[in-house]
Amino acid sequence: MTTAQSQSSAIPPSENPSAAARAPLALDSGNQASGTAIPVPVAQLIDIRKTYFKPDGSVMVEALRGVNLSIPRGEYVAIMGASGSGKSTLMYLLGCLDRPTSGAYLLDGRNVARMHDEELSAFRGRTIGFIFQSFNLIPQLTIEENAEVPLFYQGLEKSERRERAIEALRMVELDHRLGHRPSELSGGQQQRAAIARALVTRPLILMADEPTGNLDSATGLAILRTFERLHEAGMTIVMVTHDPAIGRRAGRVIFMKDGDVESDLRADRPDPVSDPDQAPGH
User: Cα dihedral angle (26, 30, 34, 40), rounded to 10 degrees?
Assistant: First the structure.
């Protein structure tokens, strides 16, 4: 195991007061004697509906139709479905980028559907880390400066921002590229820098939207291995993908159809990721 791999084996607690409860599994008081682990939901959707309306007030589309879903802490979930199935809308709602028309969304025990915009934005910044198909790195900044950006908006001091940025880059095995700008990195390295930026706030959940979509297959496998290491360290991951092979690597696959959950499958042993150590450009 490399030094970077050993560093990635533990995700530091958040400064949020609820951080102590953010373990992948928690022991229910009635089962502590037997040591039975009871998964604790980090996110719960209750009869979530999302309806888009025309300017005249008539219904244009019902994107989500009464979705009920619970995601325990430390779970690795893939969301799949055809175009128009509602998977992207579900991702936006889980990531607090949009609000439901009705229903409740409990994130870390709080109903975010009732938060006003400023409160929701601050809460999202502390609890959700986003990774997109496009890396969205700022070309003029080094990778550690890019990783610091979310912390700048949270008002952290420069020294703490830099310390946490380097820590996050070490977790994705990119600390040897400090001082480099995005144009000096391979596609896989840029995506890992984007993952570090998502990790720097020490979020509850990583939300990944087609994170390997712009990468070749070998580099994509290396990125999936990064997600696997983070999951093994206890991170909750929700990933949208159209690729069944990628979906099978998660411990749970949710298929969306016509705005609702068509199937919700858990795998006892997710497909292992092929060893990417020899993959070019990762």
Answer: -20
